[in-house]
Amino acid sequence: MGVDQGAQARCLNGLLTMARRIPSLIPEVSDMSLDRRRFLVGTGALAAAGFAGLSPADAAEGAPVRIGYAIARSGPFAAAAQVTQEPTYLLWAEQVNAAGGLQLPGGRRRIQLIGVDDESREDVSTAAYLALMARDKVDLILAPWGTRMTLGVAPLANKFGYPLIAPTANTRKLVEMNLPYYFSALQQSNLLMEALADMFAAQHVKTVATVYSEDPFGTDLATSLQLAMKARKIDLIELRAYVPGQLDTASALRSIMRKRPEAFVGLTYPVETDAITVQAKELGFRPRFIYLAVGTAYPTYAEKFGAACEGILGIGSWNAKTSVGARSYFDAHVARFGRQPDRWASGHTYAALQVIQAAAAKVGLHRRAMRDEIAARAHDSILGSIEFRRGELSSIPGTVGQWQKGEFEVVWPPERATAKLVGN
């Protein structure tokens, strides 16, 4: 699917106008006080900067590598973004700076992260990235949180020639746009749903009921689920769309319970994921398997629901057992922020940063050369080998996770499992 150049140009002109009207969209972060740098993470305050700050001695070592991004610190996406993504950006930059800076062919330079609150608004997000790339000419950019934001930012990154590795976007539309500078660090919907369908088939599940969020993320997953179930002769007895934030959970579950499915699949965001967990317990809805999407892999999910989340399935691809590097990242995250990373996108975020770091060490900050280096070969990461084929992550299969005794275990496919699947 090609990109409409005329429409893209009109969009860019409009965003440039918006960016010019924002007097200080990109603050000079080194002038911020500690209090101004505080932002919310989930339900608590994180006493951390929205950037990796530089000491006075750093100025003598040469210009920092300026890396910009916009992400939700306020608005409805903030809770997810501040669990899965921005803390990992901060941790990585701090670790790199503690080691002397980002390794480049000519030596090390410290990182200066320039982070902007996109307020969970697509217009603010795209205007921020436009300002970062066109006006401030940062050296590199990092991705925003989520599918919707990335759909707006990826064409801009491609236009200005900035590699963009997205760790929280999941829609085949982005892959099909054929943007050379875009890379998806998550397994896409077809792989995720094929893995789930394979697991159901191995467990002889015959009937499945589904609700899904009617947006690019949910509809992609729902389409892939239909195809995967049909190929394995599993009957999808209900497929119900809902507007994000507007699902009548109790009514939907009562209707589904009457059909007595063996498995229930909620292609949901955290609000609906949490509501379904509560309602399923209250209504006594206990199919053999319950699978929920975004939010299930968050550590806060287990904190909120305790024993009620035991056995719940969801999208999860790693934990501290996955590799020695995964254990190191997990422990460092807990030490730095006082909470665990999530077991899906947090790991992919750190892996994406490792890819950027490896490419910079080899080719420096020349963005076209970096893009080519990212695309050309496999890169080591805490999740194993990271390799992209036409911008799509091709080295990690679809995976399924399950809460078991306080840990979100990888249970499918068997070759990546950290524990065996448990069913009702």
Task: Itemize the secondary structure elements and their pairings.
Elements (H helix, E strand, L loop, with lengths): L4 H17 L12 H4 L1 E3 L2 E3 L18 E7 L6 H7 L1 H13 L3 E3 L2 E3 L1 E7 L4 H14 L4 E2 L5 H14 L3 E3 L5 H5 L5 E3 L4 H14 L4 E7 L2 H16 L3 E8 L6 H11 L3 E5 L2 H14 L5 E4 L6 H7 L7 E2 L9 H14 L7 H19 L3 H10 L11 E2 L2 E2 L6 E5 L2 E6 L12
Parallel strand pairs: 3-6, 3-7, 8-9, 10-11, 10-12, 12-13, 13-14
Antiparallel strand pairs: 1-2, 4-5, 14-17, 15-16, 17-18
Helix pairs in contact: 1-5, 5-6, 8-9, 10-11, 14-15
Explain what you see.
This protein is of the alpha/beta class. The chain has 2 domains: 5-187 and 324-393, 3-Layer(aba) Sandwich (Rossmann fold); 189-316 and 399-416, Rossmann fold (3-Layer(aba) Sandwich). It is 42% helix and 18% strand. The chain has 15 helices and 18 strands. The protein has helices at residues 5-21, 34-37, 78-84, 86-98, 122-135, 147-160, 172-176, 189-202, 216-231, 249-259, 270-283, 299-305, 324-337, 345-363, 367-376; strands at 39-41, 44-46, 65-71, 102-104, 107-109, 111-117, 140-141, 164-166, 182-184, 207-213, 235-242, 263-267, 289-292, 313-314, 388-389, 392-393, 400-404, 407-412. The protein has a 7-stranded mixed beta sheet, with helices on both faces. Strands 6-3-7 form a 3-stranded parallel beta sheet, with helices on both faces. It has a two-stranded antiparallel sheet with strand order 1-2. The longest helix has 19 residues, at 345-363. The radius of gyration is 21 Å and the shape is globular. The termini are far apart.
